[in-house]
Amino acid sequence: MIQVDRLAELQHGQDADFFAQLFQKDRRLTRQGRPFYLLEFRDRTRNIAATIWEGSPHEVACRDQWTVGHFYKIRGTFQETIHGGKVEIKRLRPVEQSDHESGFDPATCQPSSEADTQELFDYLLDLVDQEIATPELHSLVTAIFENHRQRIEALPGALHHHHAYAGGFLEHVYSVTQNVLYLLNTYRGQHPSLRDPITRQLTIAGAMLHDIGKLLELDEEVANTAYTSPGELIGHLILGRDLVRDTARELGIDLNADWLLRLEHLVVSHQGTAANGSPKPPMTWEANLIYWADELDGNIFRLAKACQQQDDGDPFVPKSNPFGRRVYRGDLPSQSENPS
Known about the structure:
Blueprint: E1 15-29, E2 35-42, E3 47-53, H1 59-64, E4 71-81, E5 84-94, H2 117-131, H3 135-147, H4 149-154, H5 168-187, H6 197-209, H7 214-217, H8 229-233, H9 236-250, H10 258-269, H11 285-308, E6 316-317, E7 327-328
Antiparallel strand pairs: 1-2, 1-4, 2-3, 4-5, 6-7
């Protein structure tokens, strides 16, 4: 049996057979007009690039058969470059049932959350039981989650930005929910409007449903590695509002109810501005709380990732990060250190 190596463990110059998921495939042109395909493969912890040029023996198969989101067994030479890892493909085929005997496991070929997503899901539904006393709102949130449980537990938070890995959606929703609970509990004594029960209930419901349109935005057929056509043309804010409204209709809820209008508003406004994709800015207490809580979680994730990049001993992170400024991270602990 031919040895199969792990993509994450390949060394510069190594010839190897390994399993990977095709994450991206883009047809591009050089400055001279020569066409090529730029590919990105990944496993749980590493992404690598590959280039297929016009006239290559792999060109037709790459164009017609290699499918984003599918898993492949690859034979090639791995190289570390200034732009990251790259593989020169010698052979490639889709994984087969027999590959499981050689160690193939889809879970090792795509990044995933370290959290127990089943536990997070159950916690959130328990929170609905504890906090949302309005019967129709309780039924709406519960129905959406229970109808899509399997998908919600596996969904990434995004394609490329924050929480872009299996289970990242639920991890993000949990964090946003914790953030709004903190804000509600901290400031309700200072602002009477935050003591309105429906404001609290809508804020918690909104934390759970603000990104629910990603169920329809991300394409399950290609393992959530691309957008659906509705995702490209409409986006998760409007798709989420439609899902909320359609479920309310199925449950016999009055579509003119004030609380439902406020819930729909926070879904479409949670990205804050038109420049960020929201057709309306946040205009209620609960919509603003969701916007701030969502931004906080996304920015903390981005900052953490920025501090992990280019681990070359430099205490400063370069400007090439989502914040566009140098970030001081200090002396990073070695991986062998066990934080107390």
